[in-house]
Design goal:
Elements: H1 2-20, H2 28-36, H3 38-60, H4 75-83, E1 86-90, E2 97-98, H5 100-108, H6 115-123, E3 128-129, H7 133-142, E4 146-154, E5 156-157, E6 174-175, H8 177-187, H9 197-200, E7 201-204, H10 223-227, E8 234-240, E9 263-265, H11 273-279, H12 287-297
Bound molecules: magnesium ion.
Amino acid sequence: MHRLYLILAAALLCSGCVAANPPQRINLNAITWMQSSGEYRALMLGAYQTARDNLDRALHDPSWTALLSQVPASAEDAEALGKLPPAVVLDIDETVLSTMPYQAWLLKNHQPFVPVSWHAWVSEAREEAIPGALDFVHYAMEKGVRIFYLSNRAAWGAFDTNRNGRIDPGEEQVELKPFTITNLVRLGFLPQPGISNEDSVRLRAERDANGQPKEGWATSDKTARRESLAADYRVVLLMGDSLNDITAHETPGPHQERWGRSWILLPNPAYGHWERRLYGATGKLSREEKFRRKLDSLDTWQ
Ligand SMILES: [Mg+2]
């Protein structure tokens, strides 16, 4: 009898401690899978092969576009669209560059994602290419297709320029875009013919030549940045690891026929907007609350 009470008490304590003490390394499976598995690598190679096949189709079909705003409504529209030079829009993180060493560092050291460490990592320009990405980009460039890298990396932000371990006055708003360009150039994603590196990369919260914020570019919704290309280019493919790399819709439901054709989504179980949807628009939640919401979201057997 005494032993039964002990077992029951232990069971009660255990269920309580899971809720109260979420595992510190909740992302271990996701990051291990992305860094080490052949399955992840094969999926990325396959996605880029799909992109190449669809690029060929798009180049043979002048009415093909990935932007809903560009879908021609008339024969005149279609003719005008076909005269625009083709372009491909790629996200950067977990689409062409892998940030997994940074994610692994966060995990191993129990660190939260914060701009200061993120910008220190970005400044080193040491990210390696996602499998398949570089071959695809070079294939597209050889066909005369322009590549645009549209990322929610911040164009400006806190950066410990003098490496003294803190953000001093004057370090709150440092221009960060050159770091990303350096990384893309180091690997061969840039330069490309006919367009500057600065114009090829379109980050969040960029400013115009007068130092003013570009309208609609301050948000993680990429619609304004995608549409900024529509007057000059026929955008034939959108690729990224988050729905918002491709559409402002919260679900993949509308326009289902586009997935795997002009819209190509890549896997990323480690982080992304999918998590924010679980957390709701409530701002910053504690690690415990995030863990609880993930548990609550599960569809369970019984
Ligand atoms: Mg990404």
